[in-house]
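Kindly go through the entry underneath: sequence plus fold tokens. Please state briefly how this chain folds according to its tokens.
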Amino acid sequence: MLQPHFAKGGKLNRLYPLYEAADSFIYTPGDVTLTGPHVRDAIDLKRVMITVVIALLPCFFMAIWNTGFQANSALQLTGGSVDGWRGALLALLGYGGNPDSLFDNLLLGAAWFIPIYLVTNIVGGLWEAFFSIVRRHEINEGFLVTGSLFPLICPPTLPLWQVALGISFGVVIGKEIFGGTGKNFLNPALTGRAFLFFAYPAQISGNSVWTAVDGFSGATALSRAAEGGGQAVIAVSSWFDAFIGTIPGSMGETSALACLFGAAVIIFTGIGSWRIMLSGLIGATALSTLFYLIGSGTNPMFGLAPHWHLVLGGLAFGLVFMATDPVSGAMTQEGQWLYGFLIGSLCIMIRVVNPAFPEGMMLAILFGNVFAPVIDQLVLKFHIKRRLQHVQG
């Protein structure tokens, strides 16, 4: 009934991308291929993006629970309370402030995570719709993943206006000016976070942004390692705590266990490249082992053991969900090995060699994105040269 109004010649034809997005999201499209030379399967862009979102569900849970757990633990320690509209809302919902309560942790965590998630998707979605209307093409489902990844790599205390600014930069500058989904060479979510990191470092770095309690300073494990090495990390948390994710950090990045679940899903479905993940782990393990064996009397990060590097910061999250982006990552099989190894080793190099910047995964992936086309080009040239030699010989 509504379709004729949005079709060509209808009064609302300029808004057809909005109609098509809602229609295809709710219903299966009625358009099918009729001719023979088409490869048919059950996968499309929407199913790919939804599968990635499903793989992210454990990270969503940990983002909400751990944000609440860290805040409730700090409030219990300081004797503080939740103020403002969050405090009033939580009181109505029966919030008790107990860090041992699953309900209290989820409730408080949701009060911080959900506003960031909503602002990300509303603002980013509006930009997607705007460019679709201007270019008169369908709204792509690619933003489903970007809108899920960006909140997970933010600290819980990030101001909402900076959330809107960051996702706007990521979508517009990181993707749309290059033509939209499938044409961007940088990961949009990481592009937005990098912009915020360099434009507003006080709100996205330091010790006071990771725990959702005013005036509370809670350093991440990597920050502690930069100051006192591996012993400083072991003094406040166990390796198992870091693996589970009960430590301060960006909301969805702290749990290597949740990332392992996501890795299993996207590898089993064939959406993510296991070569990138494995080579990234090899690169990170090899270089961190080398630094650990060399040691340093002036740089405590040399003393952080390799098995700690793998569960701290955003290494696991980045390798599983960011580096495997099929658009901005390497596409050739040989290139994926080199691409993943480059990201893993570069992450460790930034962490260890530059202790003033203890987390290096964001810059490592963006650097890898820039070199991915070059890596693929070199691989293709190598294959072409080898085949020419075979034919000529």
About this structure: Residues 262-393 form one domain. The chain has a mean pLDDT of 88.
